[in-house]
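[job 4471] stage=fold_predict status=RUNNING
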Amino acid sequence: MTSRSPSRLVWLHDRWTTLALFALLSLVCYVDRFILGALLTPLKADLRLTDEQLGRLNVVFTLAYILIVPVAGYLGDRYRRKWYVFVSLVLWSFATVGSGWSRTFGSLLVWRALVGFGEGVFSSLALSWLADTFAPARRALAFAVMMSTSQIAAWAAYHFGGKIAAESGWSHAFFLAGVPGLALALFVPLLREPSPGASEPEPQVQHHKPGWPEIRTFLGDARYQLYIAAYTIRMLAVSGLFFWGAVYLHREYGVENRLATSFIGSAYLLAGVPGIFLGGYLAGRLARKLTGAYALWMSGGEALSGVLVLLVLSSQPPLATAQVLILGQMFFAGSSWGVINPLLFDFAPVRLRSVAVSIALAVSSVGSAFLSSQLIGFVSDHVGIRKALFLVPTGYFAAAALWLLLAGQQRRVADEWREPPLPGAEGTS
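[job 4471] inference complete, writing structure tokens
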């Protein structure tokens, strides 16, 4: 028999309450992830770190994140997700607070790895929980609300993180970023966790899972290999400027760290979000008429982003002009975000979509974290941040070329996934 909850807690069982709490958790998750980028300059000065070491802090977070995701997904499919989400929230929030206690590079590495473990568990379970909470007709709205928090979090982390670090020290920025997660954790055990498939309108037909030969064949598809290569290299460019942009403005233009981080966070929100929505809309219309349209759109956006960053680095214009160019880069880079997953679904078989997304995410996340943070940091230690950031337009141009190759490959095999002709249709024109 079902037990009746106290009336004062009934609102916690509403699906919109679940969405609101998960959106707040996602916001806190991204703030705790992005806050490091706002604190690079004070961390370097206080702990006497090299740029390569600063980049390694991001690499260790990403490695921990990717390592825990498949484990969490396996456990979440077999046991209740509520307590894994609760523990992950406490872990990453406490680790963010613990980052503020660090006084050595080694201890900071450990804390950032723990943040990655906690966030990896949450990220792998939250979307499946929401999918079981909302019926298909409402699911896209729920996911849009959940995912839109990353841009807000980037602005909050960079704007307030740099400001707090300037006024009271980088430790306090970590402390204040971690505390909200610990408070929100208290509400998670009170939520009603849905059973898997609870929101589906009717029982789902069970299909055999794809076998390894089918997966291996898909992994050898030239289109998928081009996709992963282009995705990884574009993330070098996008993440490289986002991670190091405030450092560049501080060192090359003398902008205070709090003002530089505030600008980068604001640019990510104010230029990136319109780019996401406009790019998704226009590319979608183009895709109705043209095979390979998404890859072509990606190529154009990457090329324009590369040109704008190259102008900033090569001509070293006045600060106001440089900021306008960076805003433009954020816009064109954002125009690709709404396109990159539909592009994959253009050619990935339906039965393999989860595999295709997870592998692409893992490879691109690890590869881009190393390239955009540690590699750029290593080069910066030897030749300076401006020359090191020339890797960003290089990455954009390389990605643009790979997207073009993918578009051509799509056009060559456009008939591969079509239905066979009907009997008797041969020879008709």
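[job 4471] summary: The chain has two domains: 10-195, 214-413.
[job 4471] exit 0
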